[in-house]
């Protein structure tokens, strides 16, 4: 993962800062022993770019929980290839898989996160009663209620189903149309935290697992 390189007109060699995996982190959170920052020199000479590849400059980095599964050293972890589209994940969960009836109760965990903030708003637009849980009061859930008795979900015949949003890409056009309309009408409001500089990646990544992030976490590495 790299960024922050500036392309100077007079040269085709740029310096790029990148985080690299120095050691796999099979358990717990990665530390500075696992993820390290370095500066590399990248040549943009035409001959140095392999066939069918391209050189590009990163402007924004999306910081997502799925990245954790990439550094465990296990190949059989769930690969969340579409983690960069939290709105789409929420839309598939609420509109396609869950599809709750108006008036029904919808519970959203990590409700202030990248996926949760969209899922809660989409369920409200469907006329549902939404209860979200967050790791702290500062994340300001609309209603502070939790599941008081997990056994209640048996009597209510709650359905649990896993999904990967990448399996629903055939619905992406429909999602884009609906979401664009909701956003233009102010019915769905995204929340972002945009930090500056590739150096802040580690701190922002760890924040996903320590309850200190709110909304979608993004890092701006160039403008
Ligand atoms: N299936 C798919 O296709 C798909 C696609 C995208 C994302 N996802 C998954 O959806 C989840 C949310 O993604 P996101 O981008 O919206 O992340 P996020 O909510 O922005 O960040 C993670 C949040 O999870 C909560 N959390 C952290 N550790 C936890 C723990 N041990 N137990 C319970 N909650 C914990 C924290 O919220 P609180 O402080 O509020 O507890 C944290 O802010 C992730 O698991 C991600 O991998 C799945």
TrEMBL record:
Protein origin, superkingdom: Eukaryota
Transmembrane segments: none
InterPro entries, sorted: GroES-like_sf, MDR_fam, NAD(P)-bd_dom_sf
SUPFAM superfamilies membership: GroES-like, NAD(P)-binding Rossmann-fold domains
Alphabetized GO MF terms: 2-alkenal reductase [NAD(P)H] activity
Name of the protein this chain belongs to: Alcohol dehydrogenase superfamily, zinc-type
Organism: Cynara cardunculus var. scolymus
Source lineage: Eukaryota, Viridiplantae, Streptophyta, Embryophyta, Tracheophyta
């Amino acid at each position: 993962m790299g960024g922050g390189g500036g392309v100077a007109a007079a040269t085709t060699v740029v310096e790029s800062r990148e985080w690299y995996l120095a050691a796999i982190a099979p358990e717990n959170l990665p530390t500075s022993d696992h993820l390290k920052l370095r500066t590399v020199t990248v040549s943009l000479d035409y001959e140095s770019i392999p066939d069918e590849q391209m050189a590009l400059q990163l402007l924004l980095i999306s910081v997502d929980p799925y990245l954790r599964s990439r550094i465990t050293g296990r190949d059989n972890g769930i690969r969340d290839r579409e983690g960069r589209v939290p709105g789409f994940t929420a839309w598939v969960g609420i509109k396609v898989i869950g599809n709750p009836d108006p008036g029904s109760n919808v519970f959203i965990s990590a409700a202030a996160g990248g996926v949760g903030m969209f899922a809660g708003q989409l369920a409200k637009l469907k006329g549902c009663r939404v209860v979200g849980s967050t790791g702290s009061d500062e994340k300001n859930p609309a209603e502070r209620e939790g599941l008081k008795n997990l056994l209640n979900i048996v009597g209510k015949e709650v359905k649990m189903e896993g999904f990967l949003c990448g399996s629903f890409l055939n619905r992406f056009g429909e999602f884009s149309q609906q979401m664009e309309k909701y956003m233009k009408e102010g019915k769905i409001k995204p929340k972002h935290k945009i930090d500056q500089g590739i150096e802040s990646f580690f701190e922002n990544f760890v924040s996903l697992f320590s309850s200190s992030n709110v909304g979608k976490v993004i890092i701006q590495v160039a403008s």
